[in-house]
Design a protein that fits this description.
Strands 1-4 form a two-stranded parallel ribbon. A two-stranded antiparallel ribbon has the order 2-3. It has helices spanning about 1-25, 35-65, 75-105, 110-130, 145-160, 165-175, 205-225, 225-230, 235-245, 260-285, 295-325, 345-370, 375-405, 420-445, and strands at about 245, 250, 255, 335-340. The chain folds into 3 domains: about 1-140, no CATH class; about 145-215, no CATH class; about 225-445, MFS general substrate transporter like domains (Growth Hormone, Chain: A), CATH 1.20.1250.20. The longest helix has about 35 residues, at about 75-105. With about 450 residues, the chain is mostly helical. The chain contains 14 helices and 4 strands. The two termini are about 35 Å apart. It is found in: Membrane. Pfam families: PTR2.
Length: about 450
């Protein structure tokens, strides 16, 4: 549906462009609203693209990772690298879009700006289909649907909540169950071994361990929300800061404030080869682990860098406010503060490096730690962290806005950024990041991997 959605967006933009030209000629530059059908068609295209992305993002990445044999040591190493180079490719595409497509849309045509990605996606789809005969496909087993299977384990354990622990121990002994460390967690699920009231269906240890593996993901998912709350500030508050600062490269050339986001993607593109080709082999030689460091260690490293970026962002914003005061620009929000936009680069670059650790680590973690039939669902869980983080960020901004605004005072998010206190908000985010990072360390330390070959 992606090519169709982009095709519809291109057609919608072309129709709007021709209609706008007609309005300017016919009405002597007076405003002219687009027809209702055109508005509906435009939003239909956006929602269609969103649906396409929801199906494309988790499934295609899981499909790519499935092409590696987990039983082969060399392919196991390559699978870890796959997530690195996947994000390298995504970031490279973002850089091209920010520089090339933004220029085309601003200076040539929005229809062409949507049309070029549409053509590229059609070509990509053709190339993908040409490789059909070379792909590895997992053999589908005849076991029950994993959602039903895991859900029934929880239901059966709840029905047996009064069961004597001795009965569970006897059942385990009767089945010859060999307990490992992970089995000691969430012991209440072991009650699903017995059929409720002596009738109905009981479950195998393997099925119960699957349910435990899913439950172990919840604390990691929750504690990573602190990282996800920071993420939405990049295209919003960081950009607002950049608009007020000196963005001149030459007397006649300025950097668009929104293009500063490309520095994050550039950081990802530059750091991934360094991480994959230099840091991982060094760490592998020390730890003797195929991926160098564990997935949870990788995620935690990015969480710390995210905290560090917010601390730096707060100090940079405080310096910008001091400069505005020194030059008497506090009540002149449209004037450029004589402070180079380059001051913002550290917070962008650190967050870009943090993405290499946390985002790539989360992708691999949620792919690896769910049951085999739920790989794409695992990656959807990873994406849901950032969706929930966006909602929480909006909620937090609303609460702070209400708490800090008043009849005789400006809120932290005043329209006049020189009277706002984004530095306080960044430090609030740093505190939340520190708290979530501490909670993450606690749960990561006690986390037991679902597979023995997991790192």
């Amino acid at each position: 549906m992606g090519p169709q959605a982009l095709g519809f967006l291109s057609l919608s933009a072309a129709l709007h462009s021709s209609k706008s030209s007609y309005c300017l000629i016919a009405a002597n530059n007076t405003a002219c609203s687009p027809p209702q059908f055109q508005i509906i068609f435009f939003f239909f295209s956006l929602y269609l693209f969103a649906i396409a992305q929801a199906g494309h993002k988790p499934c295609l990445q899981a499909f790519g990772a499935d092409q590696f044999d987990e039983q082969d040591p060399e392919e196991c190493k390559d699978k870890s690298s796959f997530f690195n180079w996947w994000n390298f490719s995504i970031s490279s595409g973002i850089i091209v879009a920010l520089f090339v497509l933004n220029y085309i849309e601003d200076n040539l045509s929005w229809g062409l700006g949507f049309g070029i990605p549409c053509i590229i996606m059609c070509l990509a789809l053709i190339i993908f289909l040409l490789g059909t005969m070379t792909y590895r496909f997992r053999i589908q087993s005849n076991v029950r649907n994993p959602f039903v299977r895991i859900g029934q384990v929880f239901l059966n354990a709840a029905r047996n909540w009064r069961t004597n622990p001795e009965a569970i121990s006897k059942k385990e002994e009767a089945q010859g169950i060999l307990l490992y460390q992970g089995s000691q967690q969430f012991k209440f699920l072991d009650k699903a071994l017995l059929a409720p009231d002596g009738s109905g269906e009981n479950f195998s240890t393997t099925e119960i361990e699957e349910a435990k593996a899913v439950l172990r993901l919840v604390p990691i998912w929750t504690t990573c929300l602190g990282y996800a709350i920071v993420f939405p500030q990049v295209p919003t508050l960081f950009t607002k800061q950049g608009v007020t600062m000196d963005r001149s490269i030459t007397p006649s050339l300025q950097i668009p404030a929104a293009s500063l986001q490309s520095s994050m993607s550039i950081a990802v593109v530059l750091f991934i080869p360094i991480y994959d080709q230099i840091l991982v082999p060094i760490a592998r030689a020390i730890t003797r682990k195929p991926s160098g460091i564990t997935m949870l260690q990788r995620i935690g490293t990015g969480g710390f860098l995210s905290f560090l970026s917010m601390v730096i962002a707060g100090f940079v914003e405080r310096e910008r406010l001091k400069t505005a005061v020194e030059y008497g620009l506090v009540d002149m929000p449209k004037e450029i503060v004589p402070m180079s936009v380059g001051w913002l680069l550290p917070q962008y670059l650190i967050l870009g490096i943090a993405d290499v650790f946390t985002i790539v680590g989360l992708q691999e973690f949620f792919y690896d730690q769910v049951p085999n039939e739920l790989k794409s669902i695992g990656l959807a869980l990873f994406l849901s962290i950032f969706g929930m983080g966006s909602f929480l960020s909006s909620f937090l901004i609303s609460v702070v806005e209400k708490a800090t605004s008043g009849p005789r005072r400006d809120s932290w998010f005043s329209d006049n950024l020189n009277r706002a206190r984004l530095d306080y908000f960044y430090w609030l985010l740093a505190a939340l990041s520190a708290a979530s990072f501490a909670a993450y360390l606690y749960f990561a330390k006690s986390y037991i991997y679902n597979r023995r070959n997991s790192l």
